[in-house]
Amino acid sequence: MPTLTDLPLPTIDGGSPGLTGVLGVPDGEGPWPGVVMVHEAFGVTPVMRRQVERGAAAGFLVLMPDLFVDGGPRRCLRRTFGDIARGSGRTFDDVESARRVLAARDDCTGKVGVLGFCMGGGFALMAVQGRGFSAASVNYGRLPKPLDPRLVGACPVVGSYGGRDGSLRGAAARLEAALDRHGVPHDVKEYPTAGHSFLNDEPHAANPLMGLLLEQVLHAGPDPEAAADAWTRIDTFFSLHLK
Q1: What is the CATH number of the domain that holds 47?
Q2: Residue 200 to residue 47: CA distance in whole angstroms
Q3: Whole-model pTM?
């Protein structure tokens, strides 16, 4: 079984004070390729911790920085989305801290990918260019505007979207077309039965208003069949480009 550890991360200039993360180490002997995993908008929940564990069980050294450590989701969410939209800010500094920690470990091969969910998927797409990552996994992440300039010289991208996700209609097709235009190695797939957050293993607990949004607009929640296929694609893609 992989080992999960909560650990402090170094704060680099502009980063969050007291930054922490969840590290997942595979069973056996390394070195292993590294993956910085970027959590969704609800923060480092038990669901996200299990995603770290799942990634480690697949043979990757996984580190998920807590982007909300300095104030919690309610205080930090707006700032984090703003950083992602701009392509700079504390969020990028915190993820860079996690990337450096992985790359410097003796049990890491030195190659590091980035994988994100929801908000984190949007981040992963903004980090494909010039951020030191060798591959990116974009899971139901919002596309930047404009998209094309962000993909010039991008690292390989594997993307997974839900066809029932009303907030991201057509995103998979637009992303695939743009990656084609720029000659970026990629694997992008939309799952007709899935909504938002379909890679999670349980639904989010939410207040009534948020629950209505998650259910009626995003059709959010687990889709085990789609998730199994998506994880196979992600693991295969990362194994190819990180190992």
Answers
A1: 3.40.50.1820
A2: 7
A3: 0.95
